[in-house]
Amino acid sequence: MVAITETKTLQLFIGGDWGDAKNGETFEVLNPLDDSLYCHAAKGSGDDMRRAVAAAKAAFPAFKETSPTQRERWLLRVAELMEERQKELVDCLIDEIGSPVQKAMFEFNKALTMVRAAAGLCRNVRGETIPSDAPGKFSMSIRKPLGVVAVITPFNVPLIKTARLVGNALAVGNTVVHLPSEMAPHLTVLFAEIVAEAGFPAGTYNVVTGLGHEIGDDLTAHKEINFVTFTGSTIVGQHINEICARNKTPATLELGGKSPTVIMADADLDKAMPLVARSIFMFGGQACIGSSRFYVERPIFDEFVKRFAMIAGKLGMGDLRDPNTVIAPIISDRQRQRVKDHIADAVAKGATVVTGGEWEGNRCQPTLLTGVSGEMTICKDETFGPVTSIYPIDSYEEGLEKANDTEYGLSSAIFTKDINRAFHFAKNIEAGMCHINGPTIHDEAHVPFGGNGESGVGREGTDADMDAMTELKWVTVQL
């Protein structure tokens, strides 16, 4: 049974069956390019969420006993089906969340890698032998899956996050209940169709679409949830963290960022500038790891700003299916207003708009600001749009100090030819990730992805998720 009816209404996927929300309600999903109706989706309720958790719990005892070979086969089949349905998935990324085709293809290929890496994880769920002081005692640790994993994914990279977090949870033997962003339900429904066709047993993967502020707590606070993984805003993440703390539920949280990039005077600007632009303008700046702060050593400050402005002014804002288009529409009215408010507040308090600042429909022009000071909202808060601030610095030490002057700690970067300075920065930047002579926007399936402070708790990735989504048991045998 398909997940979309003839009226293009998405259904819930619970216990291997597609169906409407129990109350029959739906909500609208809009195309962010022009706010036209994209589809309707089932508006799941607390009752639907509890049904999904019950289905996942019922499926867990049998699923945890499946062999690595079987889980590996299912995940590799998911990857095959993704390739067969590539056009459908890419079209969804373009039309549901406004991805330019280059970003949509990047996300598809990255997600494909995530699923295949998850398949490889199936054979790496292992413990170790442990020396014992007791004579003749054989001591070891073994890993076992936790149970039901709650996965909550964002709108901006829904396929990457779904492939990684769902794939890794299933790879180690957990079952999943998935609440996608209300702005990207169709992408998740397509993935659920693929998982079902790949042969995963009923109840191992369940999808409940709906409004997160209405049913999120029904998922994260459920007593049968054994692990929570969430990607989204810091405010919501803090709320989930408090729920998990009360229930002693382990969690990983990948939250917001105010990621800095330091540009030293010895940097190769010819090589750096395309990477710098990628750091903030990919998907219209709607990336938690986007670089919204640039600290540039004063001898090259003017040249850097000039080059950056030239690149920003030439970035494509045309048809999303045109490979030359870079700038995406901002996802919603609420987020568009946030971007506008941040720019207006900065200008009112004395900042200079070097380029951009205007809107073309639902797209904000690539915007560079100078003269930003501490009393401006944009100096400290995450904007989540194609807007960045450029600050002059007089030394490496000043750059490091200012880069660390934030409550966030997600990604970071430095451009320099001085290897000693580069590694000093990597060691001392208070962020979960650091890229030397590379953009802040970077991810791979097996790396420890995540941040510190207001940017989150824990790490994602194959090894990190294996640690987080399984638990160790100590076993001894007296010989």
From TrEMBL:
Catalytic residues (UniProt): E254
Name used for this protein in its record: Aldehyde dehydrogenase
Gene3D superfamilies documented for this protein: Aldehyde Dehydrogenase, Chain A, domain 1, Aldehyde Dehydrogenase, Chain A, domain 2
PROSITE patterns the record matches: ALDEHYDE_DEHYDR_CYS, ALDEHYDE_DEHYDR_GLU
Organism: Celeribacter arenosi
Domain Aldehyde dehydrogenase: 20-475
Pfam families: Aldedh
Listed SUPFAM superfamilies: ALDH-like
UniProt keywords, alphabetically: NAD, Oxidoreductase
Similarity section: Belongs to the aldehyde dehydrogenase family.
Annotated InterPro entries: Ald_DH/histidinol_DH, Ald_DH_C, Ald_DH_CS_CYS, Ald_DH_CS_GLU, Ald_DH_N, Aldehyde_DH_dom
Stretch forming the signal peptide: none
